[in-house]
Amino acid sequence: MDFNTVKNLTEKYLFPNYGRMDVAFERGENCYLYDTNGKQYLDTVAGIAVNSLGHSHPEWVKAMRDQVSHLVHVSNLYHIEEQAMLAQRLNTITPDSITRSLFCNSGAEANEGALKTAVRYTKRKKVLSALNGFHGRTSASLGATGQTKYQASFEPLISDAFHYYTYNDLESVKEQMDRDTAAVMLEGIQGEGGVIVATPEFVKGVRDLCTDYGALMIVDEVQTGVGRTGKWWCMEHYDVIPDIITTAKGLAAGMPIGAVMTTDEIASVMTPGTHGTTFGGNPLVCASACSVIDIINRSRILDNVNRVSEQWMKELKALKSPKIKEVRGMGFLIGVELQDEATAAAVKKFMFDHNILINVAHGKTVRLIPPLIFSMEQKDVFMVNFKLALE
Ligand SMILES: Cc1ncc(COP(=O)(O)O)c(C=O)c1O
Question: How many A from CA of 145 to the centre of ligand 1?
Fold first, then answer.
């Protein structure tokens, strides 16, 4: 289908809830996407940190083909081999105490599941979450998302359970912490919030406060998880073990999945009937996630993330452009904060016109979240064009 037809159908039949760029993609391979005219783009967006293996990774495609040809969906009324295998694999890549998984279909749903679990386990009423954080757009996850721009006009749907603290300010968590606090939620890096990295003192301080008050520490690794920061989980950089980890985006490399992961004891409160979802953890999506974890392990993809990102960060920090305010991040979650929104928009357009897709978070921060297989050579192509864009 040609682009104009796609655009006309979109504008006529879809909700107008997304601001879309004037392009539609027909296929992808490695870190490249091809539009309806066959034009190739280098992809540093990866479907917003989703396509961890790039596009159409041959081993992953084979795993998907095999799975589709024998079983795609059965209900959670039955035992599901692929789901059990995925939970076992997650057990091997999470801290020892995190033994149990619950599967759903998105990051927001994973956070809903985590919040329900925390409230049921602690029998408490308050949840603390960060200003400028992002946890999704369903009712409770929107409540946890401490940004009025996402909440405005939906207030009736947001529970008054949520109280907001200032990120990286331990005093502000302390002030609101009490014996009725079920959980403190946080991201190791606020991705949507403009790639703001948590300080070690803050993360460790939140861990200690949660332990002292009997509240659960829920770490949202929806964006930072599954290798994006160069380790399986961002919290490994901090040497902190949360009570609940949520993840989604990169876990199944493009198939919709979310996961809540926690301890035996905490998971035990979620007895039959307390939570569930029709599609959650179906054989196809779980086979996809198993294949992602296997490929990342087998092909030493985390080594690639660390090697390329270290050099990339170095080169970005060495850029002496007055248009750059700060370079931040970890692994393949890098933020280049530019001087203002107009500059960010112009840089994004320049890059697009030079066949490179980039994302801008929080108005003026270029957020680099490529597939985890992004190579040194692809980084070089990006840098050549990025320098030109800044000029
Ligand atoms: C940290 C974080 N949590 C939750 C979400 C929501 O995930 P989803 O869009 O899959 O519902 C996102 C999405 O960007 C996210 O970055």
Answer: 10
